[in-house]
Amino acid sequence: YVDPEYFQSSKFRDKSDVYSFGVVLVELITGEKAVSYLRSDENRTLATYFILAMKESKVLDVIDARIKDSCNVEQVTAVANLARRCLNLNGKKRPNMREVSKELERIRDSQLHVQNEEDEDTIEINFRDSWNDLVTDSSSSITTTSSSHRTL
């Protein structure tokens, strides 16, 4: 979780916490630990492993299997891109925490927008079905009533 710039300067910078948060984001979307001795030496840290996967356009290969099937791919990819920006080795090129927060809100809101559109479509379909059922039931009642009057 430690900002690599800390090892050079022995000082935490304004954006050192952003690097650490990037590692947390990657842990969340991959389900992996920050350091693993099961990976090769050059990919031992999750940050390095993840950045390499991003460079090779294999981010979907490292997504946690527990969320892969049920996730919104665009949303997870957006979080992965944000995490990559947070993990930039050059602290000056990382977003600040306010920008990270706003980006996460934007990603969440875009999902809510899509969900709301789906909900509206469902409501409209359900309304149509209910209306059709009502019209069909009313027609049946009218037909039944009309036929019973004829019988009398």
UniProtKB/TrEMBL annotation:
<dbReference type="InterPro" id="IPR011009">
    <property type="entry name" value="Kinase-like_dom_sf"/>
</dbReference>
<dbReference type="InterPro" id="IPR045274">
    <property type="entry name" value="WAK-like"/>
</dbReference>
<dbReference type="InterPro" id="IPR001245">
    <property type="entry name" value="Ser-Thr/Tyr_kinase_cat_dom"/>
</dbReference>
<keyword id="KW-0808">Transferase</keyword>
<keyword id="KW-0675">Receptor</keyword>
<keyword id="KW-0418">Kinase</keyword>
<dbReference type="InterPro" id="IPR000719">
    <property type="entry name" value="Prot_kinase_dom"/>
</dbReference>
<dbReference type="GO" id="GO:0004674">
    <property type="term" value="F:protein serine/threonine kinase activity"/>
</dbReference>
<dbReference type="GO" id="GO:0005524">
    <property type="term" value="F:ATP binding"/>
</dbReference>
<keyword id="KW-0067">ATP-binding</keyword>
<feature type="domain" description="Protein kinase">
    <location>
        <begin position="1"/>
        <end position="107"/>
    </location>
</feature>
<keyword id="KW-0547">Nucleotide-binding</keyword>
<protein>
    <submittedName>
        <fullName>Wall-associated receptor kinase-like 9</fullName>
    </submittedName>
</protein>
<dbReference type="GO" id="GO:0007166">
    <property type="term" value="P:cell surface receptor signaling pathway"/>
</dbReference>
<dbReference type="Pfam" id="PF07714">
    <property type="entry name" value="PK_Tyr_Ser-Thr"/>
</dbReference>
<dbReference type="GO" id="GO:0005886">
    <property type="term" value="C:plasma membrane"/>
</dbReference>
